[in-house]
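Task: encode each sequence below as structure tokens.

Item 1
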Amino acid sequence: MGHGHGHGVPSASGRYVPRLVAALAIGIAFLALEVVVGILTGSLALISDAAHMLTDVFGLGLALTAIILARRSGPTYRRTFGFYRAEVLAALGNALLLFGVAGYVLIEAIGRISDPPPVPGLPVLLTALAGLVANLAAFVLLRSGAKESLNVRGAYLEVLADLIGSVGVLASGAIILTTGWRYADPLIGVAIGLFVLPRTAKLAGRALRILFQHAPAEVDVERIETALADLTGVRDVHDIHVWTLTSGMEVASAHLVVDPSAEPAEVLTQAQNLLAEAYHIQHATLQVEPAESAKRCEELSW
């Protein structure tokens, strides 16, 4: 049995902790303002944006907790992969929150369309402007991390949804202030909900893909199997698995059947280098076995 390079590496999310903390502080400050003004004015667009901001605050806190847990509770003999998956669970939790908020806004907006209540435009406009500035700051803080970490991406998508929401609320306030058209508020509330849903579904799908231990979307496992089989001295490849532990941490395992004349250590080194250099899989558990040992694998029921 041979192991690839390194037992474990810090998650890609770790270096974004200060940015997450800053985004969380911005979220808490603006949430307080938006809740007060939303309740006083009765604006559905503003209340929906406040609900999104609440999920932001909760989601950012969840993301931070997951990162800290993953960093401080490394692999042990009982938890051989530590708590790295906590970040994926946090991303899924954020997706569920966003689904709930978007659903609430859609249902509430549909109920209001038949008889939209009067909403004062100026307080909504000013609050939305403040929210736009706050969300832009958080958006810039999290944008780069969203490309590397699924957990940070979950928080980033919530901030993006709020950024779009702030633009919508800003438009709603401007329309109400200039024309007095009461339908602007519930219709923009619906638009915000519809914008959030497909992005949330994509985030949830990525998190579930990891939790079900499916191969990463960008990895062609059949191609990896062929490449390993083409290595000098390798006769057959079976029991190959590729999965993601958490963002930026791909893992693989495989059995390599070798010719009697092959040197197992050389085959192992070739395979490790191939996976690391061509497919960026640094952690691989590879079993190099003679043909007679491979028969046992054929007898397994799964």
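Item 2
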Amino acid sequence: MTNKNSIEQLPDGYLNKTPIFQFILLSCLFALWGIPVSLNDILITQFKSIFNLSDFASALVQSAFYGGYFLIAIPASLIIKKTNYKTGIIIGLAVYIIGCSLFFPASTMATYTMFLAAILAMAFGLSFLETASNTYSSMLGQKKYATLRLNISQNFQPFGAISGVLMGKYLIFQDGTSLHSQVQNLSGDALKAFQLEHLQYTLTPYKYIIILLAVVLLLFILTSYPNCKPTNTANHKVEKASFGETVSYLIKNTSFRNGIIAQFVYVGMQTAVWSFTIRLALALGAHNEREAANFMLYSFICFFIGKFIANVFMTRFNPKLVLFIYSIIGTILLLYVSFASDFSAIYAAILTSVLMGPCWPTIFANNLEVVDKKYVEIAGAITVMSIVGGAVVPAIQGFVSDHLHSMQHAFTVSAICFAIVGLHFLREYLKKDNSPTVV
């Protein structure tokens, strides 16, 4: 006789109930990739001054990071498809640790290229984690609550992002005048000594991250997790599709294709806004990097609050309509950032973060809803790949900043992106069949 309290896997891969400890441990991974996302914003400011980079060159930090996601998402999904989600997570954590460890030789070599290589390697591990965790979170329980579980897991990410900013503010940035003003007065051996000293500060956060990752990796190795893969039964036959068949199907799926474009543009916009918030604060009069980092911290707090506010709205109104309105307000705020003549521009940039929270999980969940189950793993991987927008849009915004000689005016790039996201949600809202579904 089956115990009613026992956790059982159903033929479609979902569970009859959610294993709480396993779900919380899995959700903690979302915080673990929130840390490097916010630390990248710190590194952009640090590297620009230390290596005397243009805005375009400094944005290559994000290009390396999100480019790593793009390169590994499909291989990661194929490995996960042949093994299981837990294996993908363990591989991801191990590679994440390797990437963090590469910061140590990079600081000794003191070359920007080596740091980019370390960030790329770290992103390889994070791509495994995201490819496995987003889909796995949706599978750990009853099917009707799949989107809710993914949104709950996504709520852990801001905690990581806030932790990353605090580590950057207190462990990487130092008191005193801004790095840019200090570097301007140095040359020769004095400049080299200054560069090496400040590059050493970048190591401290990654020492703590490596320790944390090792603990989480051990917990995952020791914790039993359900497979959550569809199984054959008398009443349920698992259909399998080849990689080529899956890609052909997804290309022809208009809703999925539009979702990929929206995710690409959204992640690019979010990354660009956060990448240049500290620089914007410095340009508008912040005393030094440590003071400017406060505005990045406020942005992530707003991001966290915005997720909860959005969840309330989306339970009462159509989520696509809510996100369309969010996108329009966000576009207006970013246009204000671009052309305001005083420090209020930085507060408008911070408020934009309130509107970003629900976009990623909603687009991700919708993308999985519109594909047949046999294609879901590759569909999830391609959706993760679409965050390569974070590699492209910040570089474009940096390029515009260099050529307009205005950090502020370059925020029009992000404003255009948010408007495109809004059009996507409007188009989805206006579809005839607009009833809510779950993955």
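Check on item 2: The radius of gyration is 22 Å. Confidence is low (pLDDT under 50) at residues 435-439.
End of task.
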